[in-house]
Amino acid sequence: MAVYTEVTDEALRAFLADYALGELLAFRGIAEGVENSNYALKTAAGDFILTLYEKRVDPRELPWFLALMEHLAARGIGCPLPVKATDGLALRSLAGRPAAICTFLPGLWPRRVRPEHCAPLGGALARLHLAGADFAEMRPNGLGPEAWGPLLERCRPGGDAVQPGLVAELDAALAGILAAWPATDTLPLGQIHADLFPDNVFFLDGADGRPCVSGLIDFYFACTDLLAYDIAVCLNAWCFEADGSYNVTRAHALLAAYQRLRPLSAAERAALPVLCRGAAMRFLLTRLYDWTATPAGALVTRKDPLEYLRKLRFFARAEGPASLGL
Ligand SMILES: Nc1ncnc2c1ncn2[C@@H]1O[C@H](COP(=O)(O)OP(=O)(O)OP(=O)(O)O)[C@@H](O)[C@H]1O
Ligand SMILES: N[C@@H](CCO)C(=O)O
């Protein structure tokens, strides 16, 4: 469920008066997503997505996200393009929230990931990294390694109720990850998506019937960080089976396609296992925090933190980059 802020017909029509998008033909709330309120709009000018930014997005950061999407779209990346109103501004206000309209992307996200999705995903991720190289403004990763200790502290009171012994296991795992974490000046840095899960990647069937990436959405965790960390996020999110086993075929397809466009350095290859442990820790902790801090009955779909505990354990046992599909 992700329509937290209701928008009336009258408010939307008044809002659209500032755009050159023609008459409003249809308008509906989108139930998917958990962070922001999203509406699909059809106007005389085509299909669009209206997003009202809810409490987890800092309004001061929105210009950076919108500028990044504009930069990437201008370089041929299929991503939502913020639509400017007649005064030239894309970021506006509606129903008391910051709001923006973006272009609608065709395609569907894969409900069941297959190995055939992973090569196009790897290619799209590499193209994203290359296209971001000349976007100069930095945004630190608010959910990077410095954030994990404080987040674990906030989970400490409720963590063991989710699974006995969990907090002690995470204390030990986090200490190991932080001790081995590469310094940011030792690996290539750039603009990363940082949340490229299957529900943020749209596919269409190509001429040969194989899936092609048609677009990437949800750039609201994007930041300036280690490029290889974005790969680690994808290995976590795309390369495990429902039974918790690692699918090395998917991982190999993803990594090989990525490296055809941006070969990894020796230091990035060596760091990949700890980056994967870190990415597992990030999603484990944000899920655990939401799990313990969300009141029952809230309009938020809580995601299972223990899925990421299993992934963290897998990566902690992994024997070197080759076992991850490199
Ligand atoms: N530009 C777009 N084109 C087409 N559909 C979109 C677009 N942006 C969002 N959507 C639709 O809205 C849904 C929710 O979007 P999104 O994932 O950005 O939500 P969110 O609540 O901001 O993020 P999160 O996934 O972190 O909960 C998507 O699954 C997709 O169906
Ligand atoms: N993709 C995240 C949610 C948004 O960060 C998760 O599955 O935990």
TrEMBL record:
One molecular function GO term is: homoserine kinase activity
What is catalysed by this protein? Answer: L-homoserine + ATP = O-phospho-L-homoserine + ADP + H(+)
Q: Which UniProt keywords apply?
A: Amino-acid biosynthesis, ATP-binding, Kinase, Nucleotide-binding, Threonine biosynthesis, Transferase
Residue ranges of domain Aminoglycoside phosphotransferase in the record: 27-264
Under the heading InterPro entries, the entry gives:
Aminoglycoside_PTrfase, Homoserine_kinase_II, Kinase-like_dom_sf, Pseudomonas-type_ThrB
What Pfam families does the record point to?
Answer: APH (PF01636)
Task: Supply the SUPFAM superfamilies for this chain.
Answer: Protein kinase-like (PK-like)
Q: Give a GO biological-process term.
A: threonine biosynthetic process
The Enzyme Commission number assigned here is 2.7.1.39
**Known pathway:** Amino-acid biosynthesis; L-threonine biosynthesis; L-threonine from L-aspartate: step 4/5
Q: Does the keyword Transferase apply?
A: yes
> What family does the database annotate?
Belongs to the pseudomonas-type ThrB family.
List the protein's name.
Homoserine kinase
Species the sequence originates in: Roseicella frigidaeris
